[in-house]
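Protein chain data
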Amino acid sequence: MSIFEPDRSAERLPVSVITGFLGSGKTTILGHLLAQPGMADSAVIINEFGEVALDHLMVEHVDGETVVLASGCVCCAMRSDLETTLRSMLAKSRKGQIPPFARVLVETTGLADPAPICQMLLNNPLVSHFFRLDTLLTTTDALHGRRQLEERAEAKKQAALADRLLLTKTDLATREATAELHEALAALNPNAPRFEVIAGMIDPESLFGAGGFDPATKSIDARRWLDEPTEADSAHHHESGIQAHCLTIDTRLHWPTVQERLATLRHHHGDRLLRFKAILALDNAEGPVVIQGVHHVFHPPVELAAWPDHDRRSRIVCITDGLDRHTLETVLDLR
């Protein structure tokens, strides 16, 4: 019997976080998404209703904080913490007080650090038993995004943590400004696909699924979830201090040793560890074991039913801020 938790992704509702600096078009994109027929079974949580009102989508108040949209989506203005809001919406759905939903979208404020939200979804048992972190989407304004990345720590971190990067207002910016923003985002986060979005219009199919869940197998597609950067991608990063590292280990690993190394990494360098993802070949597990974390907070390891292909090497992908590859390899010392 395995000592690791089996993959229960199919039993948990996916949560996608939409973040981005002030005025970058989060609410415009959200409004477009909610109008799509395929998104009708969504629940939406927002701190504020944003700069672009969603009133045209609202038809029925359920209570003081929750509304049902014309598309059938449930929308909640968050007045308390996210944990309480998620659990409340789930309880109302199960009681039939609001329509059932198959996914959750969370829109943050423009100055929000998305890391605590990711941490809560990864390691709060009252939430992670029912929900799983799927995709972190970050919007960046093509008119002002390059300057914001240089001057605002919030904008830089939002971009560095993202699974998908959405460049907005590209129709209003010059080609040179848009190209410069692409270059700056690629330097910060080579893993994340970038999409140019005009008037909030984008196909929902291209945005979600970064959590790697495969509906066909009802399990995590480990390789797609890991999304390894290439060596060329990683080489961009030295100017910003934010780097992407990919470590490959050919030999099977001993879990107590991995635990010890990860504890050391979190303790001494957790503040500089923006995101951590790993697929590990362990000597006491038949299938691959996946681990993910943000800063000091890690999700408990999950064992998948099988390897996705014949490549059974351990892979680790880290996005770090001010933590170089040599230090990372020295601390982990898993080779």
Q: What stands out?
A: The domain at 224-332 is CATH 3.30.1220.10 (Hypothetical Protein Yjia; Chain: A;domain 2). The first strand starts at residue 5 and ends at 6.
